[in-house]
Amino acid sequence: MSKPVYVTQPALPPLDEFIISLKEIWKNKILTNNGPFHKQFEKELADYLGVKYLSLFANGTLALITALQALRITGEVITTPYSFVATTHSLWWNNIKPVFADIEPNYYNLDPEKVEASITPQTTAIMPVHVYGNPCNVNRFQQIADTYGLKLIYDAAHAFGVKINGDSILNFGDLSILSFHATKVFNTIEGGAIICHDEKTKQQIDYLKNFGFAGETIVIAPGINAKMNEVQAAFGLLQLKHIDENIAKRKSITDFYKKSLSNVEGVKIIDGEAGIELTYSYFPIFIDENAYGKTRDELYEELKKHNIFGRRYFYPLISQFPTYRGLPSSKPDNLPVANKIADQVICLPIYPELQQDSIKLICGIISHKQN
Ligand SMILES: Cc1ncc(COP(=O)(O)O)c(C=O)c1O
């Protein structure tokens, strides 16, 4: 049987380029705490993304936790059950009560109308996720946040480089969070960032990620250790040189999947929206078992038999995990779309080095041409 094909495989910079950077770090003897690679990477990444203020983090989860601290969010936050657990865990680690609202049926992002109906006197913020990198309804969310005096924090872990009418998606809301985990479009092995819109907020975030230190003897808050180190930053700088090429490869895989699967009865794929520049982080398909003639799990197992390992992102819903399932907002009748979609989804393998024969095999199995 052919080699296993997983949902993703990390893109790596050329090893010889990385060795040159490592030699530089060995020479500098600066390993962390805003060293030269960190400074350069922070600047070049902000320029690449088209954002003004960006703070690097050790990972996306610490960025989410720190973002909530930076805005002093308390009480209740309305969020989506259809995401990776870290989105809701960041609320729990801040002693904030998550309130789940349902997702909309086109892009499977948090539904603004369901959010509005979930606001209580305890609500302080909304935390939507740009799921699979498809933008949330950013204008409607801003309108709701403005009307009710709420903060808006986007989990943009899937949305590296995504643009809306030429503007970075990270420029919407109060803060946005990125993840540079090995599985993401852009990785620094582990890593993340917070994007904000003014220097004062960036300063506050930078203090918080370094224990709250604002000077040699000054600690302004109970901060955390969430700093990105020099090795990660040097790795990230090299990744930036190759990112456009990697995104282009993801696009051509996406185009092939779309062309091959768009007419398969019972298989739904997400259509792009006009004016949106995507970076193709995931390729989810949604199985309607009646029309397809098989359940999602039957197809998932069949792919596995051929050594193809898709992932059911996001199943189970966050609201179904033990920590959260007792919450009133976790009840399935509050989240009908999310429950339905979680039972239909499989994310197919997508990464720059994915081979054409693997893509053809995957499409053949899904379109019943290969058994
Ligand atoms: C939507 C979402 N939020 C948060 C995270 C957490 O990021 P990290 O793994 O960098 O901590 C991830 C992925 O890992 C994610 O997919």
Radius of gyration of CA atoms, rounded to a whole number: 21 Å
Sketch the topology as an H/E string, one letter per element. EHHEHEHEHEHEEEEEHEEHEEEHHEHEH
Number of strands: 17
Count of alpha/pi helices? 12
Q: Assign the structural class, choosing from mainly alpha, mainly beta, alpha/beta, alpha+beta, or little secondary structure.
A: alpha/beta
Bound molecules: pyridoxal-5'-phosphate
- Taken as a percent bin, the fraction of beta residues is 15-25%
- The termini sit apart by 14 Å
Residue share in helix:
25-40%
What's the mean pLDDT score? 97
Poorly predicted regions are none
The shape, in one word, is globular
Q: Could you describe the largest sheet, including whether it forms a barrel? A: 7 strands, mixed
**What's the arrangement of strands in the largest beta sheet?**
2-10-9-6-5-3-4
